[in-house]
Amino acid sequence: MADLLSKEKIILAIEDEVSIIKFLRTYLEAQKFYFLSADTAEKGLELAEQEQPQLILLDLGLPDLDGLEVIKKLRQWTEVPIIVLSARGQERDKVLALDLGADDYLTKPFSVMELSARIRVALRHASGKIETAPIFINGELKVDLANREVFLKNEAINLTPTQFDVLAVLVKNAGKIVTRQQLLKAVWGESYTEEKDYLRIYIHQLRHKLEENPAQPQYIRTESGVGYRLQESI
Ligand code: CA
User: Fold this and answer.
1) Cα separation values, 69 from 64, 73, 86, Å
2) Last residue of a domain, one of 87, 112, 127
3) What is the domain extent for residue 197?
4) How close is the Cα of 134 to the center of ligand 1, in Å?
5) Looking at 4-129, which runs of residues are DSSP E strands?
6) What is the Å distance from ligand 1's center to 91 Cα?
7) C-alpha of residue 109 to centroid of ligand 1, in Å
């Protein structure tokens, strides 16, 4: 990813754990990002306004203000990608963060590989390049959004309109987490956001059509307690 993506890009981390800041600084500066950090929500919000970073890494457990409140405040004036840094087991907070407008999350402790994958996806989605690519290809899976066609190993796969709609939402967010609520809302509408069983059924059907081993999906991954993520590459 290094040079093209990081060129003149500012990443702000709002995080009070010194060891994580150290880890982020070392890695992101090596990737030629301009790295800024704040150890309180107040300082972070101030820096976000002053420096207009291209991406924010946000700890949910800050000393002065809940990270969820920080997302609300940021979303009042900016669409900057926000990747939440959360502790293991905080599924509820992750869902809340995503529904408030965070773009993705990393569960501590995370690796350099996970960090760079999330940053790459978030920056690309923010640049709008995903929306203009109507054909998604990953390994042997090819999805043509414009023509509503799906191919696996070059063979056309028949999907029902709803199955395709579910897949299309995942494709448009490839690499990014999509919460169950976001999927339900996008495919079935606002009043269906609690119908988690609908989604389970359609994901199950899609996996049976697209995955070599539906029990161990390579394309449509489950993000436990939160939602689904379509792998960008395998
Ligand atoms: Ca913390």
Assistant:
1) 11, 6, 14
2) 127
3) 132-230
4) 40
5) 10-14, 34-38, 55-59, 82-86, 104-107
6) 16
7) 12
17 CA to centre of ligand 1 in angstroms: 6
Q: For position 102, which CATH number holds?
A: 3.40.50.2300
User: What pTM value is reported for the model?
Assistant: 0.84
Ligand 1: centre distance to CA 15 (Å): 6
Ligand 1 center–CA 78 separation, angstroms: 23
How far, in Å, from the CA of 155 to the mean position of ligand 1? Answer: 49
Task: Judge if the upstream peptide bond of residue 217 is cis by omega within 30 degrees of 0.
Answer: no
Q: Are residues 94 and 200 in the same domain?
A: no
**Separation of 190 CA from ligand 1 center, angstroms?**
34
**pLDDT tens-digit profile of 46-97?**
999 999 999 999 999 999 999 999 999 999 999 999 999 998 778 889 999 9
* Pair 106, 14 in one domain: yes
Residue 179, token pair as written in the block: 């919460």
